[in-house]
Design a protein that fits this description.
With about 150 residues, the protein is mostly helical. Helix content is about 70%, strand content about 0%. It contains five helices and no strands. The longest helix has about 45 residues.
């Protein structure tokens, strides 16, 4: 009886493994370079629906459409920059993980540096005030001790 159960489990596991191996890539290219470019682009383009997930990892319908469009553009011999420009024109700068530095995004780069600079200045100024106040208090205490000894 246990032999039948083991065989049944073995058949089920074999079927599951076969299904996992049977998954087929939907996008085929004749050239390996285009296939590599397709994989690279799908990892660099962001899904407009999913926050912070690329279209390669997303199962959203729009991500599937974007993958199909990237495939079509590469079939039409678009290069990497042309595909990125097409997607940016259609979906905005959000679709690309590397935002350009322009008048709208410059604050994303400058504000953290400005914040760190202001924090350091405030830290140095507060330390200088503390040192001065401590010195005056210690000086008064020392003066009292000297007066007692006399």
């Amino acid at each position: 009886m246990t032999g039948i159960i083991y065989r049944f489990v073995l058949v089920i596991l074999t079927c599951i493994c076969t299904l996992a191996l049977a998954t087929e890539d939907k996008f085929h290219f004749d050239e390996p370079a285009k296939n590599a470019l397709f994989i690279e682009l799908t990892k660099e383009l962001r899904c407009p629906k999913c926050q912070n997930q690329n279209i390669a990892d997303s199962d959203a319908m729009i991500a599937v459409d974007l993958k199909r469009k990237v495939y079509d553009l590469l079939k039409k011999d678009y290069d990497k920059q042309q595909v990125i420009d097409f997607m940016k024109q259609r979906y905005g700068d959000f679709v690309y993980y590397q935002p350009p530095v322009n008048s709208m995004t410059i604050w994303l780069w400058l504000l953290p540096a400005l914040f760190i600079f202001v924090a350091l200045v405030l830290l140095v100024m507060s330390r200088k005030r503390q040192v001065t106040e401590i010195d005056k208090a210690q000086l008064a205490k020392a003066q009292q001790m000297l007066e007692r000894d006399e």
